[in-house]
Amino acid sequence: MQLDKRFRPATDEVSPPQRRRRNTIGSSSGKARAALLLALLLAAVVAIGLHIGPSDAPLDLRRRRLRQRQLRAPGLVGGDGSLFTLAGRLAESPQAAVHAGIDRGEDGEDEEAGDEAAGHLLPAASRPHHSQQPQSEAGSPAERSLSFAVCNGFAHQRVALLSGLVLAAELNRSLVLPRLLRDGSRPGSGKNLVDFGDLFERTAFAQAVERHGVRVASEAPRAATSLQLGQQYDFMRRLATDYSKVQHLRLDCPTFWVPPDLMVQHEQLVFAALDALQPVPRLADIVQRVDKSVLAQGGQSGSFNVLHLNTGQSWPEHCERWNRRTNGLASDNCSNNTDTPGDALALHRVGSDVPLLVAAIGSRRNDTTVQAALESLSKRGFKTILKEDIAKEVPELSTLGREEAALVDYYVALRCGQFIGNSVSTSSALLIMERWHAERYATYYNGGNIPLEAFLPLFPMPWVFTYNDWSSGTEYDQMVKGAVTSAIEAARMKPFCMFSGSQSSEMFQWLVGKGVRIIRHDPAWKDALIKEGRRHRDLYTRIVSHLYKSDGSILGAFQRIDIPILREFDQYNYVLFTDCDVFFRRQMKLIDWGVPLPQALGMGYERYDLFPYNDGVMLWNMPYMVKTNKAFTSWLLSNKNGMYFPGYGPVDQGAFNQYYEKEVRGKPISKNFNAMVYHNFRPEARIVHLHGPKPNHYLEYLRTNTCQFKDMCELGLAGGVCVYFAEYAKFVPDWPQVTTVARLCGNMRAALYNVQKGTRIDASSLLLSGRSTGVPPASARSRVPLPLPWRALTTAEEQQRGITYYGSGDRLRKVASKLLAGQPIKVATLGGSVTVAGFLHRQGKSYAALFFRFINESFPHRQAHGHFDHVFHNGGMPGSSSGFFAPCVERLVPEGVDLVTLEFAINDKADAPWASPQRKAYEQLIRRLLALPGRPAVLLLHHYAWWMATHDDGRGGLFYREPEGQHTLLAHYYDLPSVSVRAATWRLMQAGIDGFRVDKMVRPGSVNPSTGKPFDQAAKDERLSFFYGDIGHPEDAGQQVLAELLVAPLRRAVQEAASGQQLQRREDPRLEGLPPAMLPNNPVGATSVCAMMEDFKPVVKASTGFEFLPHKPEAATYAEQKWAWTGLQPGDWAELEFDSRSQGGDPQALALVLLTHLKSYEGMGVADVTCASGCTCKPGRLDTQWSRRASIFSTFEHWVSQHARCRLRVAIRAEEARKGQATHKISLTALMVTHLD
Fold this sequence. Notes:
The protein is of the alpha/beta class. The protein is 33% helix and 15% strand. It contains 40 helices and 41 strands. The strands form ten sheets. Strands 14-13-12-15-18-17 form a six-stranded mixed beta sheet, sandwiched between helices. A six-stranded mixed beta sheet has the order 23-28-27-26-24-25, with helices on both faces. Residues 1-141, 750-784 and 863-867 have low confidence and may be disordered.
């Protein structure tokens, strides 16, 4: 059998003990070095008083005994006898896996998450004392190291190793190889831990990664600073800054925590490491014996294929976890075709002439699904061999540990002929990734996407385009070069070209030089199609499309229909096809197309949002298209229509739309994957389509004011052409028309802007002068009022009505002027869960995302590095009121912020009086923001929840619900623009207008307060008709309305600034600065402590019953998970220690402690708040329950004396009135200290 060159069984016969000795000694292989290490080991043994055991005990056994006793000895590393203190092990706290969105069971397949393994310690014999070690040696005090734990099954441990390796490279630290788990479903301790060198060739791995700049430490540090990634809001920043000077850093399991972009940046290192992960001879020998056994049972084929079939009782549960925790990434493919894999393998043209080794993961032969699968394979002619049968021939398999057995399965599959797996399985996904990189066949029977790509985006997407001689020497040559260059450099795709022409041509040689896979294909239908295409050539060329003008052009248009029969794409479930007049702006990943993926073909809108669709960009569902290709081709050739399809369009585009109408209509792909260059600029666009006019046409229009594409040239220059061409130019540096248009665009915009201000300038002379203006590409500047980049739900009248106060608009106008001048701005949105918007925000559908999009598309701004340098920060915190933000807002918005929006009309207490802490906090928040050095504009956004504004009888829609009125009064006082959902939409909600309806909810579970019964849930096709997702939160339509209301005052400010409007101001020194506080006795104090989110955890120094846990572990981000110190029963207590001293103030004055806590309507408790030590205070009573059916984070005020180590005790008390409660929850989320002296 031909072995995979990446799998290299060791040829030396060194015994395991000898091999360990050689590996642990490392590069110092001389006898003197070995003697020194042995002497140091013996000295350590004597010093600790340990007894190794009989001298004739095996060396590896003696090392294990020594290591175990060292770990138990007091005073070594951890006084409790453990090597590390790693709180939040996955078995106890699975929330660590939530960020990744998947459960960390055995490779995500057949077990719940297990404990994490401790970091790797080399055998004690190779561990000299630091004081004895030269400074230049690896692991010395001078070397910064990184160690980490692994977790769960074999595949997840493999991902952990890659993740830790990339972190070490990024942080410029040496790598401490981890100890591995023998059984990922059990705790990572004791005999369940094995050395890295017990499973993999350590020396080969170390040498491979060191060639890529990562040094492998010769030993693990005796002590290290621990950091848990899952409990750090911005851990990469903290690793690079706060922990940069820490010598030895220890992390918990990094699987799925490393930013995907870093994995891409270190792609060469990742694959070098994977290539070097070779099993030790003991395991390599078993892999070889499995190979031989399969071949022996399969005859004389010389090769075999492998199918990993995921089934069993735990697999559906795993699929459900995927769907729940990743918002449906695997919702359409987790268990597809499990009982009929034969059909899937046939469509992927998997060879049936060699044995197929079937590993039914999670099940045995007699499982009904396995039986159905085997029958399906048999019907398709596959000769199957079950893994169970091989186990009889290789008895050593039964002696292996759980993950050792998984390792053998993995390497058997890695080196086989063809591999087929389930893409939702981490193990299968890794195999597919490794085999694709090695140019070896791998596919998956379940269709859809590969969820692992979201975290490890190293699955190059196959992209195919066509080229033939008829376009040689035209602008299409340049467009092909632009498409290919951007596909490789920006999109990181695997390019294929269906080439028709001479191999000696310049273009053929260029494509080969760029690494494009050339496909020489002569269609069987060529002559018949060309004949039919000539039927009405002259007429169709004149009135329909230039594509009819020659045999070559019409053949080129139809070449793509044979993509499904090309063997180059057998292993792929989805293939991207584009015309050559496109370019790619960022990495292309199948996972980014969302779900469901196209059933047949994914096509997008053309100029208008109408069917039929444009086929210049198509995502092909390959199994479906293979299955239907023969019938489609026969239908195509049976049409006697000159290759024009009335009602559907010309040539190939018309054919695809007509034949596959049922599969594609109403399901267009996102415009980000087919962004027409003449539409408004799309910052998130992945594929830009130069549909219609090409660069030479735009240049002709600029110089002659004529365009053979009618109004499309003008549309493009007013749309995205100028911004897109500035990017496109770097991919086509030898195409002067592109760079010329980009340069002239800047001159043109300068002219239009000056004309708008009243200055008469000859635009044509300026365009042709070639003078550079330096004006940034803000094409919307000349078109005031600025259009929304989406279809508005509100009318201009409703938007105007929503501006309940505008005031002078002074600060907002300064922001507008900055945008008009082409400068970048910084914007922050603060508020509660309406602002956070969770999944809607990540989809770009939250009001914050839409508001940011409006600014980006109206005033795009780029620097040379290619990234937008507008800064947009969604600073919302779920359940938070203004009191949470007020003390520390300076730390919660970007430095130098220009515009801040505040959304607190729902979470701030409705019936609070003016003198209450809630209203004072809102004013303090405003004052702190207005006093920031950059004098930012502050814009108030008042959300309105119809069913939370209830009359006494439970009816919704109470119009005069506070606190909006009080907040608006503060807007009057401080001259702040203010917009109101209530003012703009109340009548629309009351009348039941589509988009504003409130009689159904988009999400399930909300109860109608007037009836006590659940609301009906809106169907998928009517969700845009309803405003709310639940009784408090706006859904797609509602979030869009909030965005449109926010845009309204900014558009007004832009109009004023563009027209040069300047209001006459009264100049008087007595009016400078902020007015005094509107509310009496409401000074803004100096804040000395801001302990929030991950910084709040270490504030608790001692506790009984309290744990640091998330309220929503399934949420995607740290903020949304709502971490808190939580106690549940009377008697539970926590002590919080902090510095309550002021900086330069009166040391005798009291400090105000603001303790943020959860407030809810059931199961909540009462706590006594007292000073335990250091500072003094009066006892306080914290009551966290209220009658309102909502859960928010509120702020408790407590005055204490000043002390460097003030310790506050929060103890849950037994309340007589709440005896029947199951819990008496107290949840603490943040602590702030302010000084008002």
